[in-house]
Write a structure and sequence with these properties.
Length: 169
């Protein structure tokens, strides 16, 4: 995924736990930035130690409008349970994508949905939480990429320091 660009937009996120998990996903799947709107995260963040040591190499930026703040050249992809949206398994991810996700307890606004280049849903029974949704979308992007890294070197770089397991072949 060398030439790809990924940015994440969060609509008024509420839970610092979810934002922290989105940061972890952004790092694992090599997103370039996270933008968010609203005030709920700002009010909650000072009281949560989980978000104090977030990956500082990925900027978290508060913005007034996700559409107006979309990264240059990015296609806007809204992930939402919207009738007539495209199913994630059938979706072809753009090289330069700005994925916008709704809040934990609501939906992406109709204005944003109307301005999106694509609207995609994950075909589940019920809805996933915010962090789970971000992880599924970014994993789907990786799984469909012809440029993904694989193999033992990646495993050695990615695993926990306490894991040195090898399979006998």
């Amino acid at each position: 995924m060398c030439n790809s660009k990924v940015s994440i937009g969060l609509t008024n996120p509420k839970s610092t736990t979810n934002v922290g998990a989105v940061f972890r996903a952004a790092g694992c799947f090599q997103a370039q930035s996270i933008l968010y709107t609203g005030t709920r995260y700002d009010r909650a963040a000072p009281f949560c130690t989980d978000t104090q040591n977030l990956n500082k190499s990925i900027p978290l930026t508060k913005v007034e409008c996700l559409i107006e703040s979309a990264p240059e050249g990015a296609q806007i992809v809204v992930i939402e349970l919207v009738e007539n949206a495209q199913s994630l398994p059938d979706f072809q991810h753009p090289d330069n994508a700005f994925y916008i996700f709704g809040p934990e307890d609501g939906s992406v606004s109709k204005n944003i949905v109307k301005k999106a280049d694509s609207v995609v849903y994950i075909p589940t029974k019920g809805c996933l939480n915010l962090a789970a949704t971000v992880n599924v979308v970014l994993y789907d992007r990786l799984a469909k990429s012809s440029q993904r890294e694989e193999g033992n070197e990646l495993i050695r770089q990615s695993r926990d320091a306490n894991n040195r397991m090898k399979l006998k072949r």
